[in-house]
Known about the structure:
The protein is α+β, with helices and mostly antiparallel strands. 51% of the residues lie in helices and 19% in strands. The chain has a 7-stranded mixed beta sheet, sandwiched between helices. Strands 7-6-8-14-9-12 form a 6-stranded antiparallel beta sheet, with no helix packed on it.
Amino acid sequence: xxxxxxxxxxEDGYERxxxxxxxMTCANCVSAVERTLRKRVDGVKDPSVNLAxxxxxxxxxxxxxxxxxxxxxxxxxxxxxxxxxEDDASGDAEAEARAAETRSQRRAFWVGVxxxxxxxxxxxxxxxxxxxxxxxxxxxxxxxxxxxxxxxxYTGWAFYDGAYKALRNLxxxxxxxxxxxSSVAYFFSVTVILVPALEQHVYFETSAAIITLxxxxxxxxxxxKGRVSEALEALMDMAxxxxxxxxxxxxxxxxxxxxxxxxxxxxxxxxxxxxxxxxVLGGSSAVDESMLTGESLPVDKAxxxxxxxxxxxxxxRLKIRATGVGGDTALSGIVxxxxxxxxSKAPIQRMADAVSAVFVPVIIxxxxxxxxxxxxxxxxxxxAMVRMVAVLVIACPCALGLATPTAIMVGTTRGAxxxxxxxxxxxxxxxxxxSHLLIDKTGTVxxxxxxxxxxxxxxxxxxxxxxxxAAAVERxxxxxxxxxxxxxxxxxxxxxxxxxxxxxETGKGAWAEVDGQEIRVGKLEWAAPEAxxxxxxxxxxxxxxxxxxxxxxxDGQVAAVLAVGDKPRxxxxxxxSDLGDxxxxxxxxxxxxxxxxxxxxxxxxxDDVAADLLPGDKVxxxxxxxxxxxCIAFVGDGINDAPALAAADVxxxxxxxxxxxxxxxxVTLVSSDLHALARAIRLSRATMGTIxxxxxxxxxxxxxxxxxxxxxxx
Length: 714
């Protein structure tokens, strides 16, 4: 999957693009590319370079600077940018460039192995008297020189090239350390064989081993970075390469998926993956959307329902009108968002970057100081040189540079696999410290639509008959409450009668004649003024729960009391319990009345309620909790939630919500399953734990072993 995708429109004439960058080895390389883009290329802003993904993301003005100019500037800095091309939508250019680089690295490594092994065998065998007297002959040093030279200048050439380019740009990176350390050992040994009077030991095996082993490390590092992104690559590969399109003549033709246009009619057979986003025109099936939402149960699809590219069709045949193709599909959007999150930097990375920026100069200074101290203490220049080389090659700035971005890559990719999309690395980091979660009620905790929640049947009446008569009156109405009653009756498997000739009285209810009886559905005093005390008591109880209460009467006698309300989502109670287990306090923020809000809160286990709030009041509620210096998350789905989502430390939009809500959010839950809230926080905490562990060992390794290399334990 290409990272060097076509530029995406941004603001003020800028476009955002992400380019693969070849040749980066450590955090100093990242800083060099960022500085080049920020200070040496006009028309570019907000560059963010990621060592783990080996890419640069930035905004640029096409009218002011071309991508060729950007690539040239990066080339002058010592690195290579892979540019997109119109005929390379599949990303072959990037794949070929990376494959060529890998082949070159592998070839250089094996050349290093082939020449280093005999150098090591001869040198170690001679030092430990494991081979014959011939090994001590002067010509053997020339043999070692001949074997070590290809390693130094072929296998190790990339380090010299990288060091030169870094120093030319007034930067010092890992290549500088490797080039210095190996060169000191190599050229000291060359001097020894050119001036036999020195009678010193040669260290060709040291220089060759340094280069070959570090080249091996680079190959392993490259493989690890490739494996990190495999899950995301696999996600994108789920989009099929072909689609079955209906032509104007009515024929079904299989074409490449990229040729499908918006508005085309696409046929999806049982067991096939859907190639485009679209709307079902005909047929029905159950579609596995787990690769998008993380939910394992298939979702039933029928005419009018929305389907997404990459999802797996079940046993039915679907006829779909394409509404999103190519880069406009939900899957492409998810991958693009994850890529942007991976390319961004978490605040914790600034510390590592700051340390890495001075790391190499400090190590060089320590190495020189080590040499001078040992030279002064022992008078043995050879021993002092060995200690200096040890300091240069033991230090590892790469670990500091990779500690954060690799964890971010894994975290954001794992989130995408589970239907959790983080806008950037900052959102992923902040989510771990959420202390209070303010959550909208309607459409978030609840389903956001009225449903028949309660049925109370009067003595001597049958539930089946009372509901059938109520549905007969309400069936002809388009009012949401009436539709909820009819839907509730249908869900109970009760056969609906024909629609009655219904009449209504505004603010009171509706009535009709059914089976020769007058059936009324509405307010208690209007439908049955002589209602029993039990019916009135039940009506009051339901009203106190914030529900809409209706009485059903037959010829003036109470038959049933019905209540319609907004039911909590099936996942709400357990999801909020999971949040409590994580130590997160929950607060319901809603514009609904206090009775209705408190009733829902009690059912699902929400800690506190703030009701009767306007959109502006929701923002004030967020800021009130922020004043207590807490990390506040707000969860919502509607347009009226957008201000609060933007104001919160972490804004979380549920996937069933509006586009505006998701644009304002830091985290988007692709599905409406509230269990994803706890999963998002756990994922953030796990990622931050990994980052801290990585940074600890990166610092500990260098802090502990550099003094050892300098001779602290000698």
